[in-house]
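Worked example 2:
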Amino acid sequence: AFSSWAPKLHQHYVDTLSEYQNQDPSFQKNFPRTAFAAATFNFDEQTETVEHQDYFNYIVGWCGITSLGRFDYTKGGHLILWDLKLVIEFPPGSSILIPSCYLRHSNTSIAPGETRQSFTEYSAGGLFRY
């Protein structure tokens, strides 16, 4: 999705990681075909985030977020993009790319007994300045 929707930005990520790996051969990507430098698995029973921005991510970059678990996405687990005034149903298995460094975002709670986890990929801004 990243290379389809933002091919130049995606290539910049790939080139940056390749250059970094050339300078530090001990550097290993988390996944063979990823363009992102970092990943976080949130496996809590009911992963929920408060309104925030990821200030240390690449400022013009994107962050990939995937929703996981078993919950009624019509009643909870919505993705909120505060600056855009959007509340988005975000079913398990859905992914989205957002500029998380400057776009305030969070998600809503889910019902007791349901589970929601998430998987995110991102790159720190310092990597692009290095």
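The CA atoms of residues 64 and 97 lie 5 Å apart. Helices lie at 2-5, 7-23, 125-129.
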